[in-house]
Amino acid sequence: MSSPRRRLAVLASGTGTNLQALLDAASGPAYPAEVVLVMADRDGIGALDRAAAAGVDRVVVRLEDHADRDAFTRACVSELQKRDVDIVATAGYMKLFAPVMFEEYGERILNVHPALLPSFPGHARKVLRDTLASGVKVTGVTIHFLDEGMDTGPIVAQEAVPVEDDDTMETLHARLQAVEHRLFPDAVAHLAAGRISVDGRRARIQSP
Ligand code: GRF
Known about the structure:
Layout: E1 6-12, H1 17-26, E2 33-40, H2 46-53, E3 58-60, H3 69-82, E4 87-90, H4 100-105, E5 109-113, H5 124-134, E6 138-145, E7 155-162, H6 169-192, E8 196-199, E9 202-205
Parallel strand pairs: 1-2, 1-4, 2-3, 4-5
Antiparallel strand pairs: 5-6, 6-7, 8-9
5-O-phosphono-beta-D-ribofuranosylamine binds next to helix 1, strand 5 and helix 6.
């Protein structure tokens, strides 16, 4: 008998194309996780529409509705625990969490980032702007564990993407996202299957 699928929550703040890639991957019965919750930090975003279209439970938890970041984080943890969430994927999610999130879900949250960390941390638009302004010829996609910092957790997977001479933020982002949509579901599957080990800064994926 195959092992039960892990309960996955996806956290998003925007369009949700990475959410869609995860929903599509998890629609196959062999994928080791199912998306049981989409959590957003604001209303009216594409990610919530995608969750609704897929029939997935969704909740909005706004930082502005809480006294401070700790209270906000506790509310987010509570929404995850209510649904017995095992693992979390942050896909274009724009909020940082207080330590309580990592006390509960440490090394169970993966993030997708549109650059080769530790180069170019920050939110996606800043990353794309900084990448083009720097003149680098190669950038890429990083999948890493989320921690309390801004894009500082152990790196699980990276793939290089070329920067073309005539790239704009839009054309570069499209090339990066094509890689994100493959690399992120793959890494989440490894996490769900218990194949990622972490030793200090170094995360390793074991062969199945
Ligand atoms: C992605 O490029 C991701 O790397 C970054 O934010 C963007 C979110 O895009 N963290 P989407 O909402 O998944 O389309």
